[in-house]
Amino acid sequence: MKGYTNMCGETASTQLKFIEPQSQYDYDLLDEVAKSEDLNSILTMLLLDDTLSDSLRRKALKQLRAK
After folding, report:
1. How far apart, in whole angstroms, are the C-alpha atoms of residue 63 and residue 61?
2. How far apart are CA 44 and CA 61, in angstroms?
3. Cα–Cα separations (whole angstroms), residue 37 to 1, 34, 40, 50
4. Averaged pLDDT, groups of 10, the chain, 67 residues long
5. Distance between CA atoms of 23 and 65, rounded to whole angstroms?
6. Which of 32, 43, 46, 56 has the greatest CB tally within 10 Å of its CB?
7. The predicted structure's pLDDT at residue 8
8. Taken in order 51, 30, 27, 58, is the CA torsion positive or negative?
9. 9 conformational bin, left if phi > 0, alpha if psi -120 to 50, beta if neither
10. CB–CB of 24/3 below 8 Å?
11. What does the alpha-carbon distance between residue 35 and residue 39 come to, in Å, rounded to a whole number?
């Protein structure tokens, strides 16, 4: 994914570009997460969520290590 822009034209954080939004709700949620001062905690929660795919958790870990 080459980064993404929501319908309002706002570009979400490149740190979250590994997440592929499926709806406008997803775009809105990702924009809010990207603006959060607690982004590291949110990425850590993704790592701990066993309902997510291993692939998505690996990508979240990679993003945390890149910071």
Report:
1. 5
2. 8
3. 24, 8, 8, 24
4. 40 69 83 82 85 85 82
5. 28
6. 43
7. 38
8. negative
9. left
10. no
11. 8
> How much is the pTM?
0.58
Q: What is the pLDDT of residue 67?
A: 65
Torsion angle of the four alpha carbons 59, 64, 65, 67, in this order, in degrees rounded to the nearest 10: 130
Q: Which two tokens stand for residue 14?
A: 């490149």
3-state SS class at 67: coil
Q: Return the residue matching tokens 């290590």.
A: 65
Which residue type does 25 have? Y
Single-letter residue type at 2? K
User: Coil, strand or helix: which one is 5?
Assistant: strand
Cα(67)–Cα(38) distance, integer angstroms: 13
